[in-house]
Amino acid sequence: MQEFKNIASSVHPPYNIKMKSMIFVVLILIILPACTVVSNQSPQVRPIASVNPSLQDNSTLLPSSTPQTSPTLSVSPIPQGVVIENCQPMAYTLPTLPAFIPGYAELDESIGLHVTGSYKVIDLGTYRLKVNGKVKKPLELTYDQILCLPKVTAKALLVCPGYFEDTASWTGVTLKSILDLAGVQAGVNDLVLVSADGYKVNIPLVEALEQESLLAYEVNGQTLPILHGFPLRMVFPGRSGDEWIKWLVEIQVK
Fold first, then answer.
1. CATH architecture classification, 107-253
2. Residue 106 carries which DSSP code?
3. How confident is the model at residue 205 (pLDDT cuts 50, 70, 90)?
4. Neighbouring residues of 127: CB distance < 8 A, sequence distance ≥ 6
């Protein structure tokens, strides 16, 4: 009996080691597949909020993760025969305010013109030139649409009596071409031009129809600076400088 105990005691330690090894192998076989399953799972993606397809309004609120864009404003249709809605205007550089702004009636040496009025910074994304009143087709023209119209260039003298005289080369579209798009009704005598700063000018229609009357968007080969009326400034050769309205936003046909 004692001999059997001695034999058993000599066998037991290796048996324990073997059992422990088997248990360790079994645990590895259980754990590894579980880790493999986890690592092969696709990452979860947060669902994107859907927008009701029946809502066609561009101003519909979008999910907070989607950047919002400004709503598209409607533009009155252009008369048949004039295609400017989908035109590609010439390239232009948006002007910025200069580091130094001259005082009233002082010379802006960067462009060669004297400064008058309180400048307005206008966003082209929302800008529309409105033409309304006694017209057949009221218009709201974007800056790009205006640039797509036939352009003309004229050298003209700007006179502010008692202050200064500026000679410059102005490029833009004729006021007549804008009025032709709208179709002026019979019995019209005057136009009222309105600036973004609220300033208004009354012009006889017969003079507005002269080919020299321009809506200028360039001066001396550059995009019209903000200080001098960007995006549009009226050019009336032969008329007083206070009628050369800057930051033009509306033409009222009376």
1. Alpha-Beta Complex (3.90)
2. -
3. very high
4. 142, 143, 231, 249
